[in-house]
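Escalated from tier 1: zinc ion holo job.
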Amino acid sequence: MQQFIRYLKSGLILLSLSFSTLTLAGSGHTGAHWGYADETGPAHWGDMKSEFSTCKSGKHQSPINIKAAHNASLPAIRFSYKATPLNVVNNGHTIQVNYAPGSHITVAGKQYELLQFHFHSPSEHEINGKPADMVAHLVHKAADGQLAVVAVLIKKGASNPLIEKIWKHMPNHKGEYSKAAIKIDVSDLLPANKAYYHYSGSLTTPPCSEGVNWMVLKNKVDVSPAQVSAFTAIFSKSTRPVQPLNGRQIELSH
Ligand SMILES: [Zn+2]
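Tier 2 regenerated the structure:
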């Protein structure tokens, strides 16, 4: 009995500890600073704080190595993007372009609003074991809260006119914003052929939340080697390693 009470007490202490962690998180306190190297790198994200635990325990994580995709009759992604005033932020992990409301994609009748897009180099997803030189992640959210990310793989080649416009206003330091009196349209980043790989995954950064509808465009667009270097000069590492598939199916649209 004594032991049982002790057990109960320790349980209560544990409970109160986890509640205080939630409160801290809820009040916007972000104690742990995750990154891509050493003790704060991807291998440690899941242990850094309780709200990052899915990074370690999740079974449907991203990115993945895309191979053995099944041909499937997937619905086309209907892109309805508009130009937006340029609003670029260096969030310490990447260059992110925030998008004004009113742009969205529709997939199988479900609408997802475009929130922002950002970059990684090399690409996080791999195709048959090979990453692309860079990727743009276009992050969307549906009215029910579900996230959909369209990944545009980018390879070294010709200079990219949209990236040229963004890089001209790229903030060099964490927390810096840059707003310019020009408009950009992320439609300019899309390849002509919109065939895509589809699977269910997660955010590739903490808290690694799952249930993300991933659509990785099969066809790559160009970026110049100098444009890649301009990004990697600020963000030498911006890529989470590929995660186990754990039986998930990958589909390829026609
Ligand atoms: Zn991303």
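Residues 118, 120, 137, 204 surround zinc ion (CB under 6 Å).
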